[in-house]
Amino acid sequence: MQRVINFSGGKTSAYMTIKEYKEGDLVIFCDTGREHPKTYKFINDFETNENISIIRLKYKNSDNPFDELLKHNKYSNIPNNFKRFCTIELKIKTARRYLRSIGLKNYDNLVGFRYDEPLRVKRRKQMWKGVKDIFPLFDKKIDKQMINDYWSKKSYNLEIPSILGNCTLCFMKGKNAILSILSSYPELANDWINDEELNKKGFTYINGISMKQLKEIAQNNLFKDYDLNEIKPAFDCACTS
């Protein structure tokens, strides 16, 4: 059976790829266009050091997939933790369209959920007929500490805190995490602020508060005492799958 490895650009999926990769596997990274620059550097370093090729996909082959998705919806909607159409379109369906384009409908789908993420495994639903999800890290009882220990000994690493993985200010990280991120990286708010200002119905990523307001609050230095390395997302997301 053909195997597909989901590579998110983070340390966990990279570890899974290194440990599980077999000749002939397809390693897929779906680029949202909102990743941190050092995530892209890590992906490049991974390919160079591990000699494993990554298939990089983008929604509609756009240079700015996230922007393209909002334009496609004519800025009439905006994703949030109740309507996560960004994950569905930019990652799940983008990967699916590519695989179908090469004639692949039945395959084993390797997902990087760890042993310390049992709820993510339990909640995972089979989306496509003929696709079997496999969770090698969970099955082998690999947890976050083991992943971090592994990367601490490597010659290269992801040079950002894990909370900055995936889309930089993803709403699934939660308001407090976003505030903490913006206290150190206020410039990351710009694209997200622009999205909200273009939205025709006044929708925001976080219910009841705009990214512009979050940036202003963060600039008051109220969250500087938080260690970004210790912050966890408020909600589980499929983007790391």
Topology:
Blueprint: E1 3-6, H1 11-20, E2 26-31, H2 37-50, E3 55-58, H3 65-72, H4 85-101, E4 107-110, H5 118-123, E5 131-134, H6 136-139, H7 144-152, H8 175-184, H9 189-198, H10 211-218
Parallel strand pairs: 1-2, 1-4, 2-3, 4-5
Polypeptide structure, described:
With 241 residues, the chain is an alpha/beta fold. It has 2 domains: 3-161, Rossmann fold (3-Layer(aba) Sandwich); 164-230, no CATH class. It has helices at 11-20, 37-50, 65-72, 85-101, 118-123, 136-139, 144-152, 175-184, 189-198, 211-218, and strands at 3-6, 26-31, 55-58, 107-110, 131-134. Strand 1, helix 1 (11-20) and strand 2 (26-31) form a beta-alpha-beta unit. Helix 8 crosses helix 10 (211-218). The longest helix is centred in the middle third of the chain and has 17 residues, at 85-101. It is globular and about 50 Å long. The two termini are 20 Å apart.
Known CATH architecture of the largest domain = 3-Layer(aba) Sandwich
Helical fraction: 25-40%
Neighbour order of strands in the largest sheet: 3-2-1-4-5
What number of structural domains do the residues give? 2
* Rg computed from alpha carbons, rounded to a whole number of angstroms: 18 Å
Task: Report low-confidence residues grouped into runs of 5 or more.
Answer: none
Number of E-type strands: 5
